[in-house]
Amino acid sequence: MSPVYYLYLAALLFTIGAAGVLIRRNAIVVFMCIELMLNACNLAFVTFSRMHGNLDGQIIAFFTMVVAAAEVVVGLAIIVTIFRTRHTASVDDASLMKL
Amino acid sequence: MTGLAAAASVTSSGEAVQFWILGIVAVVGALCTILMKRAVHSALSLAGTMIVLAVFYLANGAYFLGVVQIVVYTGAIMMLFLFVVMLVGVTAADSLKETLKGQRWLAAGLGIGFGILLIAGIGNASLKEFNGLGEANAGGNVQGLAALIFTKYVFAFEITGALLITAAVGAMVLTHRERTERAKSQREQSEARIREGKQVPPLPAPGVYARHNAVDIPGLLPDGTPSELSVNPTLRERGQIRDVSGESLAELKALEQRSEEWLGRSAEDEPKPPASGGAAPKEHKEGAKK
Prior knowledge:
The complex is a heterodimer. By secondary structure, chain A is mainly alpha-helical. Chain A has one domain (4-86): Orthogonal Bundle (Helix Hairpins). Chain A is built from three helices and no strands. Chain A is elongated. The N and C termini of chain A lie far apart (55 Å). The model of chain A has no long low-confidence stretch (mean pLDDT 90). Among the domains of chain B are: 12-92, NADH-ubiquinone/plastoquinone oxidoreductase chain 6, subunit NuoJ (Four Helix Bundle (Hemerythrin (Met), subunit A), Up-down Bundle), CATH 1.20.120.1200; 247-289, no CATH class. Helices cover 58% and strands 0% of the residues of chain B. Chain B contains ten helices and no strands. Chain B has helices at residues 13-35, 39-59, 63-88, 103-124, 141-149, 154-175, 186-196, 233-238, 245-262, 279-289. Chain B: Residues 178-207, 219-290 are annotated as: Disordered.
């Protein structure tokens, strides 16, 4: 097996995540799909790091993780705020800037 | 996995077996994430996929990232997701109504097309051989990463710190709610309750205390019917109420019938089929008086 298969898997996971973002209406699940896409990218970075034989890819994956953690905190806070004002977590109902 | 050769093109067969087994698990987990109806199930499937990815990181020589993946992603981020799912609750169920006609199928088709594009791109790239991390990891994976973070990427690292602080403050600002009007006193609340005329006394407690005291079992009203009010509205909305009034009434009825037979009284009023409605308990009371 060649490490390229990890790239195929990463592409597949990224695709599934992207399709999930388009298909699902629940904001939390959409957010989870974004996390899935970020994870798929990380897998690609780690695989490329192995292919090139240096650690730069792993550093980028590490920074991606940090940014993802920050993003999750803010994103979930936004979801909770939207849920408080609109009593729904559906992305369709958040169509107005202000209630 | 070791990657000692300068430019190998095949990994060990053990890693291949691991890849094919865990890869399928990862894809199934990802599919479950987007196909499961409830957000909790999605979150758990995603956690499974993330654990599999952590194993893949380890297999790819990213030992630090593998551990961080488990600690940060499955440990912290997914638990945060679960907390929010609990906060947002039942009403977060996905609406199945399509706002745009045919949007789902179009999205699925686009997803498949995008996947084909990506995979074809990777297939056309010349990625036949790889170097392996044996040399880069020679002094230890964590040491190598640390050396890079604190030299070449030190500014990115510093900016990351600023980002984390901003995110923490942002989350607090977003979720903190300033109280704009005075809180209602207990007296005002009770007056408002009486004015509205709904449920003046405290809500009834759940559970049938002689048998069950779980919160998902409604308490029984004097006439034997389950009291909807005694169960948490969340459980009510999910339909997770366990109604035991029927079975317990039936058991009680059987018990009384047996005792009457033992006492030698003929059950002239033949036992009606036990219903969970209001008729059953009255019969019991009459039977007990006899």
